[in-house]
Design brief:
Layout: E1 13-18, E2 21-26, E3 30-32, E4 39-40, E5 53-54, E6 67-71, H1 75-86, E7 90-95, H2 109-117, E8 122-125, E9 127-132, E10 136-141, E11 147-151, E12 154-157, E13 161-162, H3 166-170, E14 175-176, E15 181-182, E16 196-198, H4 214-229
Parallel strand pairs: 3-16, 5-12, 6-7, 6-12, 7-8
Antiparallel strand pairs: 1-2, 4-13, 9-10, 10-11, 14-15
The structure holds flavin-adenine dinucleotide.
């Protein structure tokens, strides 16, 4: 996202609060690398806040012998489903898509596909969660709107994250588009506020499809260092093909 305009103010201080104290640090430049996973995305369905629902896999062995519904169909859901199955859980996947997502990593997909084909992991493709109860989840078939209950003990939501752009907004940096991506000069990573740079996945705000990830973010630091040193921007790196990105 290349910036189209700049404002004239330059940051000179940052307020810091910790344990009720606050102080200011003068800085000519600020780099914000706050990521894009401030909070987990919600389903917004009844029962989502029950204690059996979590967004973090944690230690998979605690699910041994339990029926776990994994909601989602991309890499996190796929990896969690496999790890849960290996740990002895009875795994069911609910995913809105008609099949495994095409961008699941190529070293994860075959094992999951095989487990589904063999009936070791149950896949409820083309479904969405309507409600979560203490012992069952109500799923809706997207194609015909019919519903059915899936008995479960636990629900693991792997449906992505939401970024928090409030720090950028508080500093006056322009955010654009539905993702609230940070407007910036791609050569220097400088935002619409001179002296404030952005690095890492924060660049793209809330990402649905992950276009900015670890590998293609490393160059951000080199661009910012070059800008600070007054050097020309570095060439774009040549990255290996990442079909799952
Ligand atoms: C389960 C899982 C698997 C993943 N697998 C991959 C993968 O295989 N490949 C890949 O490229 N990416 C993967 N990711 C995404 C990966 O975590 C991010 O791409 C990467 O961490 C982004 O780095 P970042 O430095 O931009 O942000 P982050 O790593 O998110 O770091 C941001 C930091 O800023 C801090 N912060 C946020 N707000 C503030 C604030 N207001 N003040 C001070 N500090 C703040 C946060 O606490 C955090 O420490 C995965 C993520 C998850 C959750």
């Amino acid at each position: 996202m290349r910036k189209s305009s700049t404002k004239s103010c330059r940051p000179t201080s940052i307020g810091i609060t910790a344990g009720g104290l606050s102080r200011s640090i003068n800085a000519q430049r600020i780099v914000l690398a706050v990521g894009g996973t401030a909070s987990t995305r919600r389903l917004d369905v009844p029962g989502e806040d029950l204690p059996i629902v979590t967004n973090k896999l944690g230690e998979p062995h605690r699910y041994f012998g339990r029926r776990v519904l994994v909601v989602g169909g991309k890499n996190s859901a796929a990896e969690s489903a496999i790890r849960l199955w290996r740990a002895g859980a009875d795994v069911i996947i609910s995913y809105r898509g008609e099949d495994l997502h095409p961008r699941i990593k190529y070293w994860i997909r075959p094992e999951l596909a095989s487990c589904i084909r063999s009936g070791l992991i149950a896949a409820r493709f083309g479904t969405r969660v309507l409600a979560i109860g203490p012992n069952a989840v109500t799923l809706e078939r997207i194609d015909d709107g019919s519903t059915f209950d899936e008995p479960i003990d636990d629900v693991l939501l792997q449906i992505g994250f939401v970024a928090d752009g409030s720090l950028f907004e508080a500093m006056g940096c322009e955010l654009v588009g539905p993702n609230k991506a940070v407007l910036h000069d791609t050569a220097t990573m400088e935002t619409s506020i001179p002296g404030i740079h952005v690095a890492g996945t924060a660049v793209n705000g809330t990402q649905g499809r992950y276009e900015i990830y670890i590998e293609n973010s490393h160059v951000h630091a080199v661009r910012i260092a070059a800008a600070l040193a007054g050097d020309p921007p570095p060439p774009d790196p040549i990255l290996p093909e990442l079909p799952e990105a």
